[in-house]
């Protein structure tokens, strides 16, 4: 299996609650720290064995950085053989509870950047190779915050690549602002068959020399067998593949895609996601499934309404 273009995102593994569909079935009732650590290590082992070498965490992903750091050291993986990205901006406040009123709180300030960078470095040490603004938006102003950009420049000069992740219906504008800033090495954005609106901006970022990382390629489970639109499910059946594999094949087919993140919470999901590398995407599929695209505002409204399971 050729997994060199895949990364493993730990949003669904580092904390007990998340918005991915079907977590009750995937995780069961035991979501203790010990159980989630064991599950995370199992998926990390499977990803490593399959050839995945990029791992994506964040300060807000519960204990994701801690779980990843422990696994890297327990498996004695040399820092130079793996790429680890993390993010600053959100703080996890869920307290390892399923019923927490808030699970994360966002603040894109230089003060939070400095504090969370220190936390990430304490856990990940020499493994940290990419540090990203978490869910920047055009309206937040973070991409024009001189103090934030100065800290990021210092970090980049210290040998850590810097990136920005985007969110919301104005992703394209945010990507263009990141390119304009001229200091970012990567941009991570949502692109999938339901929400392809950032595509032209991601192409521009790629042409400007940034590596494009694609997140949410299966739309938090909406493009998997659990909830696949009929057109996607039918096309997948015809090809003898899973809906998620076909949806991720669409991402891999974009000429600007550098890394595609799998958000798998189980080894079975990971295997299904990675099988996308063997799926041939065609112009006919592009045309046939183009009707799945939703207006960006509608897509992000639906995403915001997904419950934390």
UniProtKB/TrEMBL annotation:
Gene3D superfamilies: NADP-dependent oxidoreductase domain. It comes from the Bacteria. Residues 39-283 form the NADP-dependent oxidoreductase domain. InterPro entries: AKR2_Oxidoreductase, NAD(P)_OxRdtase_dom_sf, NADP_OxRdtase_dom. Signal peptide: none annotated. It holds the Pfam family Aldo_ket_red. This is Aryl-alcohol dehydrogenase-like predicted oxidoreductase.
């Amino acid at each position: 299996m050729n997994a060199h273009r895949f990364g493993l995102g730990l949003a669904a593994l580092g904390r007990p609650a998340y918005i991915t569909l079907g977590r009750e079935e995937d995780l069961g009732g035991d979501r203790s720290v010990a159980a989630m650590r064991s599950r995370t290590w199992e998926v990390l082992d499977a990803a490593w064995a399959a050839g995945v070498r990029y791992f994506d965490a964040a300060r807000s992903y519960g204990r994701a950085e801690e779980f990843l750091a422990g696994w890297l050291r327990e498996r004695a993986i040399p820092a130079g053989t793996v790429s680890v990205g993390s993010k600053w901006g959100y703080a996890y406040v869920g307290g390892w509870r399923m019923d927490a009123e808030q699970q994360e709180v966002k603040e894109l300030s230089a003060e939070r950047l400095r504090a969370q960078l220190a936390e990430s470095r304490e856990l990940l040490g020499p493994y940290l190779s990419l540090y990203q603004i978490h869910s920047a938006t055009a309206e937040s102003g973070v991409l024009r915050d001189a103090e934030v950009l100065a800290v990021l420049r210092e970090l980049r000069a210290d040998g850590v690549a810097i990136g920005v992740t985007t969110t919301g219906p104005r992703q394209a504008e945010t990507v263009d602002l990141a390119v304009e800033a001229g200091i970012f090495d990567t941009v991570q954005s949502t692109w999938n068959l339901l929400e392809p609106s950032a595509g032209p901006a991601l192409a521009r970022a790629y042409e400007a020399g940034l590596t494009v990382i694609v997140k949410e390629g299966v739309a938090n489970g909406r493009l998997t067998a659990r909830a696949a639109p009929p057109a996607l499910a039918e096309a997948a059946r015809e090809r003898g593949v899973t809906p998620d594999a076909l949806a991720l094949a669409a991402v891999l087919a974009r000429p600007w895609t550098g890394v595609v993140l799998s958000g798998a919470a189980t080894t079975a999901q990971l295997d299904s996601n990675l099988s996308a590398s063997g799926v041939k995407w065609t112009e006919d599929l592009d045309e046939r499934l183009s009707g799945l695209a939703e207006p960006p505002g509608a897509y992000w409204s639906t995403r915001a309404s997904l419950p934390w399971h």
